[in-house]
Amino acid sequence: xxxxxxxxxxxxxxxxxxxxxxxxxxxxxxxxxxxxxxxxxxxxxxxxxxxxxxxxxxxxxxxxxxxxxxxxxxxxxxxxxxxxxxxxxxxxxxxxxxxxxxxxxxxxxxxxxxxxxxxxxxxxxxxxxxxxxxxxxxxxxxxxxxxxxxxxxxxxxxxxxxxxxxxxxxxxx
Length: 173
Description:
α2 packs antiparallel against α5 (156-170) and α4 crosses α5 (156-170). This protein has helices at 12-18, 36-51, 101-120, 123-148, 156-170; strands spanning 21-27, 55-57, 67-74, 77-83, 89-96, 152-154. It has one domain (13-170). The chain contains 5 helices and 6 strands. By secondary structure, it is of the alpha+beta class.
């Protein structure tokens, strides 16, 4: 039983939603039709991210969430336009994508191999390719996690989903 005025009701759901992204928009001005597999990955990444993520900006006096995020790739930079629930600008995080290029390129190559393997290869071959794909995905997510750690707290799962979206933004055709 809690005492009057005791706020320790254990409402972790509202606390976790406070420190999270509740709306995410990809700025895709150069949007092109993508393969169904890629569109599915994008939709799943956004859905999963919004369902379960940990994201909170660092710094004194900084808004503690929940956040609306617009993710954009422009001029070889990844831009996180972070806003509050009323769409007021809170912070913009911008960093170069050049350090990610090799892992994104390798990830695309392995993904192509994976999609091709699904059609014709044995389960053990598919599993081996998938392990490589997951390893590259984890590497990219770790890079993103380390870069964002200067400005925000997030978990590995959130970084993985954001890395998927970074890859989607790289697709031009």
